[in-house]
Amino acid sequence: MAQRSGMVEKRGLSHWLVHLGMILGVVIIFFPIWLAFVASTVTQSDIISPPMPLWPGDQFFENYSKALVSGINAPVGRMLLNSTIMALGIALGKIVISILSAFAIVYFRFPGRKLFFWLIFLTLMLPVEVRIVPTYQVAANFGLLNSYSGLIFPLIASATATFLFRQFFMTVPDELAEAARVDGASAMRFFWDILLPMSRTNMAALFVILFIYGWNQYLWPLLITTDPEMNTIVMGIKQMFPSGDDFADWPVIMATSILAMLPPVIVVVGMQKLFIRGLVDSEK
Amino acid sequence: MATIKLDDIHKSFGKTPVIHGVSIDVKEGEFIVIVGPSGCGKSTLLRMVAGLETVTRGEVRIDDRRVNEAEPMDRDIAMVFQNYALYPHMSVFDNMAYGLKIARVPRAEITERVTAAAQMLQLEPYLGRKPRELSGGQRQRVAMGRAIVRKPAAFLFDEPLSNLDAKLRVQMRLEIKALQKELGITSLYVTHDQIEAMTLADRMIVMNAGRADQIGAPLEVYANPRTAFVAGFIGSPATNFLPGAALGLSADSLAVRPEHMVLSAPGQGKIDATLTFAEALGAETLLHFRLEGGTQITTRQDGTAPVPAPGARAGLTWDARHQILFGTDGLRLD
After folding, report:
1. In terms of Cα–Cα distance, which of B15, B18, B29, B23 is closest to B186?
2. Of chain B's two ends, which shows fewer C-beta atoms within 10 Å, N or C?
3. How far apart are CA B215 and CA B220, in angstroms?
4. Domain count, chain A
């Protein structure tokens, strides 16, 4: 008994220590975000005059409405819309294309099936940065500069997602496809009625990852858009920085940063339920 | 209801031949069991009838119509798979209704047919559930129900009971038999379990390495095996094979079923053997003997009969009517 109570006591102490450590970690990680939020609620002069305030000021509505409506180069509202369209376009497009190509690779026997799979797989080794010059050339020739198509299409193919769906489809028993064939389902009907509903948790997980990937694109939008009206928010923040002797409107820039963070947070939190459900009930 | 005719069916995977010419005429409403050890090609044969595998050579005819090139759905068959192959995201009702929906059967008729099948299979309380919420036996019933609602010309069963536990298997075996008799639908049933084959079949096909060694009624096959393989495969405990040389015969081996072996005093029987151990099963006792040359012999006697001590020697004898002689090629001699 004595030994047991001793263990409980020890566990109690380590329990507190562990939590203390974790709280400390959260505070360290959260502090810069907090600082950005504070900076977005005070005036320019408050920021410039040291020490910097650590508690929110009274300029919240002024700064945010200024950012959303007028911004610096372009209204942040507009940039948010551009980013949303781009991120949604990339995430949904990638899912549609990769699930279809994975379906073709797993369920159809056609000449060059392996070759095509490895060609897709090979593109994993070529990040955007490596192929950016030829891609830009192609996009420019198609007249895709300063357009949503230009923002979305060059990034829409995904070897990773194709690979993930391929792996998932390979775990689906062959008998399911055969049962569907005996039931009279055509290949696309099988895909639509059976594979797609079975993949929905995978699709949800991928959507979260790909939405954030699309949202965080920086280099490509920077190249393909020159019109401030087409800027995405992540690159737009950088564009807000002053060049030369201009003065930086830090409260508005910070408000923009906070706004840029919100949609990915909303997507992650909103999709969390589907995520967990996907992990908990395995349907196979 | 339909007839199924297999005419000299061959199948090769690449260059490897796996089925070397199987022919059978299945009559309307007949229950045919294809039985054999794993790898003998029995599932491949069934899948060729279903249209899930192509036929390399030969002809499959359903209701006297060549179906070699027809898609599974155009063959008017329904199949029950070993792992049930239920659609995991659909309710029991939708699983059973899926084929009918594709065939554009009117909604009211779908409901009627699914409900009727569910009633027949005692699945009514589960129609709204997902497959994962069902037990193994219930899933098996859903798979059967999916086949029944289609009202197909033929049922194809691919080892439907092998994922169930022993008790449930016996129960489902009886249900399948009763159901098939009630519906009168021509059925092909693949199994590796010879008891299932014996109890279910009107006629059975014993497959061995891609060949149909024997086709016939279960008791006929049991009593008159055509090859040594069939004699050894059908029946449990397995048939005893005595080396022909030990008995002074020209045949390669002589087969006697365990229940036809009779014990006698040492030297009094046709051959002497040593008892290695006895298994008392209650109703019967299995005695395992070893011959001089190391051959194992099993005899079966009534549970109340006296059992010799292990290590004891005994003579074994049998009625000449029950012995079957096989040549070196495994074929029956007489």
Report:
1. B29
2. C
3. 9
4. 2
Cβ–Cβ gap B99/A181 under 8 Å: no
Shared domain check, A43 and A143: no
ipTM for the predicted complex comes to 0.82
Average pLDDT over residues B220-224: 91
Q: Produce one character per residue of A91-118: b if its CB has 16 or more CB atoms within 10 Å, e if not.
A: bbbbbeebbebbbbbbeeeeeeeeeebe
**Mutation for testing the B interface, residue in A172, A183, A201 having most B CBs under 10 Å:** A183
Task: List B13's β-bridge partners, or say none.
Answer: B16
Query: What's the CATH code of the domain at A222?
Result: 1.10.3720.10
* HSE-CB for A82 with a 13 A CA cutoff: 29
Coil, strand or helix: which one is A158?
coil
**Using the beta-carbon criterion (under 8 Å), do B73 and A178 form an inter-chain contact?**
no
Q: Give the per-residue pLDDT at A179.
A: 92
At B316, phi and psi to the nearest 5?
Answer: -115, 135
**Closest approach of A202 to chain B, Cα-based (Å):** 14
Q: Based on the domain organization, do A50 and A135 belong to the same domain?
A: no
Which has more pLDDT, B142 or A278?
Answer: B142
Chain B residues in contact with A198 (beta carbon < 8 A): 88-89
Indicate if A140 and A258 belong to the same structural domain: yes
Q: What is the pLDDT of residue B156?
A: 93
Q: Which residues from A are below 8 Å from B139, CB to CB?
A: none
Range of the domain at A41: 2-69
Token representation of residue B148: 């029944």
Residue B276: phi, psi to the nearest 5?
Answer: -95, -50
Instruction: Work out whether strand B186-191 and strand B154-158 pair parallel, antiparallel, or are unpaired.
Output: parallel
Considering only residues A97 and A7, tell me which one the structure prediction assigns the higher pLDDT. Answer: A97
pLDDT of residue A229: 84
**pLDDT higher than threshold 80 for residue B242:** yes
Residues 6+ apart with CB under 8 A from A44: A247, A249, A250, A251
Residues A111 and A216 in one domain: yes
pTM of the model: 0.79
* Greater model confidence, A280 or B55: B55
**CB–CB contact A182 B79 (8 Å):** yes
Q: Which residues of B touch A277 (CB under 8 A)?
A: none
At A280 the pLDDT is: 62
With CB atoms and an 8 Å threshold, state whether A176 touches B103.
no
- The mean pLDDT of B47-60, rounded to a whole number, is 91
pLDDT of residue B257: 92
